[in-house]
Write a structure and sequence with these properties.
Helix content: over 70%
Number of strands: 0
Number of helices: 9
Strand content: under 5%
Structural class: mainly alpha
Number of domains: 2
Length: about 150
């Protein structure tokens, strides 16, 4: 993931060149369109923070000279590091970086998908919440990524 993010502009350029070379399989796929979306870039950046932390734990588990107590301590440290990512400031920093790269690479703006209203049997007469700003919508996704990682570690 880090390799794609570090070379995102090269990936975009390569996909565009492949599409223009009349490659029928790539022309029928939406891959170039997906990578031209700022939303894709943001989601990659959101996942990268958690995955990078988990990769460090994976490296320590692959070591042959680690004691079980050391591995348990490494898992605890990783859990604490991932819990430390659950801050508004961290998310805001990622969102700023994504917006900067969207402008730099001339990508489509980061958009909110329209959300469906839940059935009234679940909400009753109450109005359902729908995010009206990008930061509200994707902060929820970011926390879902963190929660999934933490649940798997525990």
């Amino acid at each position: 993931m880090k390799g794609i993010l570090d070379r995102y502009h090269i990936v975009l350029q390569t996909l565009k060149e492949l599409v223009t070379e009349e490659n029928q399989q790539l022309n029928s796929s939406d891959l170039p369109t997906v990578f031209e979306s700022g939303t894709t870039l943001l989601r990659l950046l959101l996942g990268q923070k958690v995955i990078t932390t988990c990769e460090l734990l994976n490296k320590s588990f692959q070591g042959r000279q680690q004691a079980v107590s050391g591995l348990m301590k490494a898992a605890d440290v990783t859990t604490a590091a991932i819990e430390g990512l659950r801050k508004y400031e961290v998310f805001d920093m990622i969102l700023k970086e994504a917006n900067k790269k969207v402008a730099e690479y001339n990508l489509q703006c980061i958009l909110i998908r329209s959300s469906k209203t839940p059935p009234s049997q679940y909400t009753g007469s109450a109005e359902s919440f729908a995010a009206d700003r990008v930061c509200q919508h994707y902060r929820k996704e970011y926390y879902a990524i963190i929660n999934a990682a933490l649940q798997d570690l525990k």
